Amino acid sequence: MASPQGSRAPLEFGGPLGAAALMLLLPVTMFHLLLVARSGPARLLGPPPYLPGLEELWSPWALLLCLTWLGLQAALYLLPARKVAEGQELKDKSRLRYPINGFQALMLTALLVGLGVSAGLPLSALPEILLPLAFAATLIAFIFSLLLYLKALVAPASALAPGGNSGNLIYDFFLGRELNPRICSFDFKYFCELRPGLIGWVLINLALLMQEAELRGSPSLAMWLVNGFQLLYVGDALWYEEAVLTTMDIIHDGFGFMLAFGDLAWVPFTYSLQAQFLLYHPQPLGWPLASFICLINAVGYYIFRGANSQKNTFRKNPSDPRVADLETISTATGRRLLVSGWWGMVRHPNYLGDLIMALAWSLPCGVFHLLPYFYLLYFTALLVHREDRDERQCLQKYGLAWREYCRRVPYRIVPYVY
Ligand SMILES: NC(=O)C1=CN([C@@H]2O[C@H](COP(=O)(O)OP(=O)(O)OC[C@H]3O[C@@H](n4cnc5c(N)ncnc54)[C@H](OP(=O)(O)O)[C@@H]3O)[C@@H](O)[C@H]2O)C=CC1
Ligand SMILES: CC(C)CCC[C@@H](C)[C@H]1CC=C2C3=C(CC[C@@]21C)[C@@]1(C)CC[C@H](O)C(C)(C)[C@@H]1CC3
Questions:
Q1: Where are the domains of the chain?
Q2: d(Cα 155, Cα 2) in Å, to the nearest integer?
Q3: pLDDT in tens for each of the 418 residues of the chain?
Q4: How does the entry describe its membrane topology (predicted)?
Q5: Residue whose CA lies nearest to ligand 1 atom number 45
Q6: Do 184 and 238 contact (CB within 8 A), yes or no?
């Protein structure tokens, strides 16, 4: 099977063996976290309190609930959008069009959930069925990735992703073969990246907050902070939805198990870990410390949003007055690279902001357990690896100009450290 560029792209994630290991390790880690979060000792590195049997994992109702959720989000995706954005230019010089109505979907979901709860929908019972829901989401991700793999068999070569077409079934299934799998104008990767998982994550957080209120009379300050910070993050992602069109996942990666599982199962069930932990392990938190944690989150958000917006504005229109005065390096492709402003400080200022926010999400859970810091640890590893992948792609794209950028901006993520 030829790679779409004729030559084979270098294998990532440790090749087929690494891909196979990750396909097993990621779901196992997710279930481990779900189990230990509710156990007394809540030890990240200890064994799970028990191994659940199939009867505890499998529930047709949980599967039906997951499918209904996906159906609802797909229906909201298909509603008229305030704007239709064009993606980056593809190999065949065409550009795909994407509806910008993610924030509208979040608002409508909030309205529907609000109506449902006031009509007696037992949202606070959701934490009881997280295990079967996660199992159903994993099953859906596996079957969906299989269908995506089969769909790619009949896709034209120009529709294939640069990676994910090695000819090895396991590796290609994991990475994803087709770049932008679609049926008519419904774009599966774009839909999954921003809607069911991200909105599902804040819904699970809300259900955990409501259950805490039922158990203890009112939600704790720590639970409010975690819910507030993560809602801001998800709201921001959907408000600036168009910006996702310039991320590595949309431009470069195929749509396979990694993203399908990541979007549909990993994000909602592991990113809500801090709120899960707080439900079973309440943490005292006073206002002075809470204010300090809010400040850390605000600093992280300021850097994350500032850096992402600066790059997106520049990529959309380099003469925009907000970025026109920034210093740049010309590249042979005709595109320029920013070397001042946020992108002159480190080569991935947006990752730095994201990591600072990740710290702020864990701090409300106290410092006596490692478990709530799992997200910070995993995210650091993910971003260091992602940064390395991006560097290699940029070096290939921009050659000497990228080397000059690295010389001018020597640090990758943390100034004077890394
Ligand atoms: N919460 C989560 O789980 C995750 C969050 N994220 C977040 O998603 C966001 C997007 O991340 P990601 O897609 O990895 O990467 P970036 O948004 O940082 O995009 C990297 C691309 O930006 C362009 N670029 C790099 N340097 C410059 C420069 N100096 N001037 C202009 N353009 C430049 C290059 O593409 P080109 O030149 O082709 O435009 C490069 O390939 C980040 O904020 C990240 O933190 C990411 C992964 C997971
Ligand atoms: C666990 C696996 C090894 C990898 C799975 C990775 C995915 C969970 C992430 C890959 C890139 C992501 C992004 C976001 C969420 C996580 C995944 C899907 C993002 C939507 C979060 C919100 C941000 O504002 C963003 C910039 C829009 C993010 C884009 C990348």
A1: 1-282, 284-418
A2: 13
A3: 334 444 466 788 889 999 999 999 999 999 999 999 999 889 999 888 899 999 999 999 999 999 999 999 999 999 998 899 988 888 878 889 999 999 999 999 999 999 999 999 999 899 999 999 999 999 999 999 999 999 999 988 888 988 888 889 999 999 999 999 999 989 999 999 999 999 999 999 999 999 999 999 999 999 999 999 999 999 999 999 998 988 889 988 999 999 999 999 999 999 999 999 999 999 999 999 999 999 999 999 999 999 999 998 998 889 999 999 999 999 998 899 999 999 999 999 999 999 999 999 999 999 999 999 999 999 999 999 999 989 998 999 999 999 999 999 999 999 988 9
A4: Multi-pass membrane protein
A5: 351
A6: no
The tokens for 97 are 């069009």
Q: Which residue's CA is the nearest one to ligand 2's atom 4?
A: 262
Q: Indicate the top mutation candidate among 242, 267, 385 to test ligand 2's pocket, ranked by most ligand atoms within 8 A of CB.
A: 267
pTM to 2 decimals? 0.94
Q: Is 241 exposed, middle or buried (0-12, 13-18, 19+ CB in 10 A)?
A: buried
Distance CA 70, CA 186 (A): 13
- Nearest alpha carbon to residue 166 among 154, 158, 176: 176
Is residue 136 lining ligand 2, measured as CB closer than 6 Å?
no
Query: 111 is written with which tokens?
Result: 């309205």
- Say how far apart CA 319 and CA 280 lie, in whole Å: 52
Query: What's the N-to-C CA distance of the chain in angstroms?
Result: 39
Q: How far is CA 176 from CA 25, 149, 267, in A?
A: 18, 7, 18
- Does the CB atom of residue 374 touch ligand 2 within 6 A? no
**Which is the closest atom of ligand 1 to the Cα of 339?**
29
- CA distance readout (Å), 35 to 130, 262, 282: 10, 19, 17
ipTM field: 0.96
